[in-house]
Amino acid sequence: MGAAEAEAAIRAGIAALQRGDAAEAKRLLGEVTERGSPLPPPFFLLAQACRHAGDEAGEAAALDKVLEAQPRNIGALIMRGDGHARAGDRRAAASFYRGAIQAAAAGAQVSPILASELARAEAAAAEIDGEFAAHLENRLGAADGRVRDAVDILLGRKQVYLQQPTSFYFPGLPQIEYYEREGFPWLAPVEAAIPDMRAELQAALASDAGFVPYVESDPNRPPATHELLGDPSWSAFHLWRKGDPVPENAARCPATMAALEAAPMPHIRGRSPMALFSVLRAGARIAPHNGLLNTRLICHIPLIVPEGCALRVGNQVRAWEEGKALIFDDTIEHEAWNGSASIRVILLFEIWRPEIGEGERQALTALFEAITDFGSSEGVEEG
User: Fold this and answer.
1) What is the pTM assigned to this prediction?
2) Long-range contacts of 210-217 (CB under 8 A, 24+ apart)
3) What is the CATH architecture of 3-139?
4) CATH class given for the domain over 178-374
5) Domain coordinates of the chain in residue numbers?
6) Each residue's pLDDT tens digit, 257-271
């Protein structure tokens, strides 16, 4: 079929659609697609004609041709979803509706008419998602633990958070946001010293000497861009820093230093241990971020915790409770905030991950010290 003949047939097909003669439109447009022509095949128009003619299979076939050439064609995705909805396949319908929504979000062109259809698709997808969630709840009942987390991820209520260390990745470790205290028997003697730790902290706060902004520039690294750079609203009283005790601060906190001896802190020249009192002032918020390396866990011993303070690690938000440790993987995205009118202070330190055995700890220590010997070590972030 020549271009002129094809164009005439397409125009006639459109006219037939406009006057409600779906069968004639289908015949004309189908002839163009079957015989071929120099013009782009009018599969989308053919799909519309098939829909009005009640030809579900023909509509689906024509739309599949459109999507084969243009996978992000919003109109075709919505129509394909409508077809599945009419056939009773609600999950398939929602999948195509979400495809249209994602195509629009990715920058696909949306006309005013298509915008109305897109809004309808969004509402339909949300309705189907609600039906699907209710169906699962009815079948599963009160699922909890990891099953509940998996269902929430499936339903889009939660997202997948994985270890994303910014400096060093050690493979084969489990993706655990918070570790439960039962696996850390050494916590008991550390927590037993909390009254003495708190007294030492309060004395340090009273003098205000020794506290520095938590985020500081390193002259041997490119300028930091952290929003709390140099900001005392997040400050630190370092007890151990880059593998060495901070003499003037450690001397003021002997009970805290002694308690830390019970913890399995890494001892890596130029890097670890790292331990400090972390102060987050009223209204301050630490933006979502990831820690440097996944060979460690971060331990928080809450010492001063007003209402309105919390820590999110991945999908889990936990409020600090004075005297109860929190242990978490800081290479999973996390953030912290103080929504109160007073300061929050924790003792923060790092420990070896329990999944890393003694042999690997020795090998990693040698590796990190070799890295340090090649150049200056990187700073360590709070979890």
Assistant:
1) 0.79
2) 210/237, 210/238, 210/246, 210/248, 210/249, 210/252, 211/235, 211/236, 211/237, 211/279, 212/236, 212/238, 214/278, 214/382, 216/379
3) Alpha Horseshoe (1.25)
4) mainly beta
5) 3-139, 178-374
6) 999 999 999 999 999
